Automatic annotation (TrEMBL):
The keyword Kinase applies. Residues 294-377 form the DAGKc domain. Residues 17-30 have a biased composition (Pro residues). It is a multi-pass membrane protein. This is Bifunctional phosphatase PAP2/diacylglycerol kinase family protein. GO terms for cellular component: plasma membrane. Keywords: Cell membrane, Hydrolase, Kinase, Membrane, Transferase, Transmembrane, Transmembrane helix. It is found in: Cell membrane. It comes from the Bacteria. The keyword Transit peptide does not apply. Its EC number is 3.6.1.27.
Amino acid sequence: MRVNHSAHPTAQRRPPAWRPPGWRRPPPPEPRSRFHRSRTLRRLGRIDRWAFDGVAAAHLPGLEYVLPRLSRFADHGVLWFTSAGVMGLSGGARLRRAALRGSLAIAVASPAVNLLGKQAFRRKRPVVDLVPPIRIRWKLPTSHAFPSGHSASAAAFATGVAMEAPRSVAVPAAATAAAVAFSRVYTGAHYPGDVLAGVGIGMLAALGTRTVWPAHPPAARVTPAEDTVTGRDLGELVADDGRGVVAVVNRAAGGGDAPVGMAGGILPSRADFAVEILERELPAAEIVTFTAGDDADKVFGEAAGRASVLAVVGGDGTVNAAARAALDHDVPLLVVPGGTFDHFSRALGMASATEAISAYRDGRLGRVDVAYLTPAGGRRGQDEEHIFLNTAGFGAYTELLERRARLERRIGKWPALAVAAVRTLRHSEPVDLFVDGRERRVWLAFVGNCLYGARGTTPNWRERLDDGWLDIRTVSTGRRVPRVRAVAAVLAGHLHITPGYRAWKATALELASPAGGLRIARDGELTSLPAKLRFGKHAGALTVFCPAEALR
C-alpha cells in the first residue's frame, strides 16, 4: 500500500509567504499586442469621429443639393453601369475595354464589401445629429457601415477605367468617384474611415483584374526616327494644311462593304468619316479613292511616288498594301483608322482619324519592324516577299476567313464572322506540315510581327513594335482534334489550355507542306503561296507617324 506522504498530517509543510494586509493576487497581465491594438483602434476611432464631425459641420455652398443626389444616383452601381454603357456605345476600342474592366472590378469589389467586410466588422452607422437635414433627403441605410460599398464601387470603376481609357476620360471618372466617396461622409452615411477602407478595396479589386485580363498599354513602343527622313527635315514633311500628303482611301473599309439592307450599306462607313476629317483638317492633301476592283498595289505605288507623306485610310489589309509602297519609295506612312478592326493603328495608339492627324502635325516619327514570308530557297528580292505588320495565320484560321468572305455579302461582316467561326471549329481538320524541319499535324497557327501580350486565338496588343521577334503559336493535334475543349479554349480566349498548344519566339521560321501549296492569311487577307516558306523580319524598316505615348 502506497502512502501519500505529502498528504499525511505529520508531513512538513512550507510556511506561507508573508503578504501585507489587504493584498490580492493581481489579474493575469493582458497581452501586450492586444493592449496596443485596442489602444490604437480607440485612437483611430476618435480621429474618425472627429473628422466626421468636422465634415458634418462644414458649410459648402451648392454642394448640399449636388452631393446627396450624386450619392443617391450611385445606389446599386446605377451611375457606374450607366457610364459603362455610354462608353461602350462610343465606338472606341479603348473605351469599350475601360467600360468592361470597370464593370468587372465592381463585380469583384461589391461582394467583397457587402458580403464579407460588413458582416465581419458590423460597425454601426454614424449619429447624424450634426448633419443638416437638407443633406439627408432619403432614408439612411440600415446596413453595417464598415467598409463603404459606394466608395468601393466608385474606386473600382474609376481605377479600371484609368487602366484602359485615355486621360480625357480617366480624369473625369476619377473626379466623379472622389465626389461620390466624399458624399457618403457629407450626407452622414459613413465615417471617413469607412470610405477610405472602401476605396482601398475597390482599387485592389480593379488591379486584381489584371491577373486574368492583362491591361493593354495605350500604345506600343517604337524606335524614334532620326531628325531627317529620306534626306529631308521633318519641317519639309509636315505642313499644317497637309501639303505633300497623298491619302489613299479604301471606301469599302469599315462597313462600306455591307450588303444592301444592312446598316453598313446605308450609313457612312468609318472610312467616309475619316475622309471628311481629312478634308477639313488637311485641305491641301491629295485624296485618292480606290474600290474593290482596283489594283491596290498599283494605286499605292503611284501615290507614294509623288508623296512626301503617304497616308492610308482603311483596314489592316489596306494598310499592308500601303506599307509595301512606303517601303518601296522610302516615304513615311500615316495610318488613319478606317477599317473594322484596325489592329495596327490601335497598336500605334491611334484609334481615330483625329488622333492620326494630331500625330502628323506633331511630327513624331518612329520606326517599326516589318515581318515577311518568302518562298524558301528562292531569291530574297522584294518581289518575292510578302510582308505583314500584324499576323500571318494558317490552318483553321484561313478556313475561317474563306467562310466569312462567302457569307459577309449576304449577312454582313460581323454575323458572317460568328457563323464562320462556329462552322470552322466544328469541321476543320489539321494539316500535315514540317515546322522548322519537324513533322506536325497543325490545326491552328499564327505568326505575329513582334511579341503579343494576350494568350488567346487572336492576340490584339503588343508592348513593342520594334523588338525584332516573331511570335509563333501553334496547336498540333493527333488524328482527331479535341473539339469540345478546343472550342471552349477559343471562346474563353485561353488557347494555351488546348492540348498540343506551343508558343515560342524566333527570328525566322520555315514551313513546308507535303501536300503542295499553302494558304496564308496576312493581316486578314488570303494569299496562295508555294509549299515551302520562310518567315523573317526587317527590323525598324518602316517609318510611321505615331503619338507621343509610343515614343516614351
